[in-house]
Design goal:
mainly alpha; 3-stranded antiparallel β-sheet; 58% helix; flat
């Protein structure tokens, strides 16, 4: 505690060791400035502090107000409670927090218009543009793969030009490929959500069946 308190002081956001203890025990509210300072001092991201461990990296949550656990499933965290009336699967929350996918329809109020199916692609593209890093600003861990992909695209474009395709035709092909990829990505994501819902339903049905027996 003392070392963390000293780090925070050096960052210009001093918090006494007793104050850090109160934060850990949820006896003191944390503001945005505290959150940023703690993230820097602890060498994690603000998202990590807000949401807890990423999916698949947690055994059992310590904060019951943040996490919602289904006892029948053992120790797996099944939902993250963002708000009193909103609890979502960890993967959905992290994908949203990282700017990969919007939350979708589940958060909408009853008096708000639903997004039409044909508008999902535009909504997702807009969400990523406003909330995620562009492809050329990806982390170093992705840099090698991104560079290889860019090289492949460069070679493919040059080969297409050598074969006589016009610049306009190539642009149309790229647009068509991107549209197809987004559609497949959306369908795959929806299928994964449906599978997880079916899996949860099967687990609950099995649990009820065992109790009845």
């Amino acid at each position: 505690m003392r070392e963390l308190s000293q780090r925070l002081s050096k960052l210009g956001r001093p918090i006494l060791p007793s104050g850090i203890t109160k934060l850990e025990q949820a006896q003191r509210r944390i503001d945005v400035d505290d959150l940023m300072a703690l993230a820097v001092a602890l060498e994690v991201t603000p998202t990590r502090l807000l949401l807890g461990p990423p999916p698949g990296a947690v055994e059992r949550p310590d904060n019951d107000e943040l996490y919602e656990v289904e006892e029948v499933s053992g120790s797996d965290v099944r939902f993250l409670r963002l708000l009193p009336e909103l609890a979502l699967e960890p993967w959905e929350v992290w994908s949203w927090a990282l700017g990969e996918f919007p939350l979708g329809e589940i958060w909408r109020l009853s008096d708000e218009n639903s997004v039409r199916f044909g508008d999902h692609q535009e909504a997702e593209a807009r969400f990523r543009a406003e909330n995620a890093l562009p492809p050329n600003r990806l982390t170093l861990g992705h840099a090698e793969g991104v560079q290889e992909a860019m090289t492949d695209v460069d070679h493919a474009v040059k080969d297409a030009l050598d074969e006589g395709l016009t610049e306009e035709q190539i642009q149309q092909l790229v647009t068509r490929a991107v549209t197809s990829w987004r559609r497949e990505k959306r369908v795959d994501q929806e299928n994964q959500k449906r599978y997880r819902r079916l899996e949860r339903g099967a687990e609950r049905a099995h649990e009820r069946f065992d109790r009845e027996d």
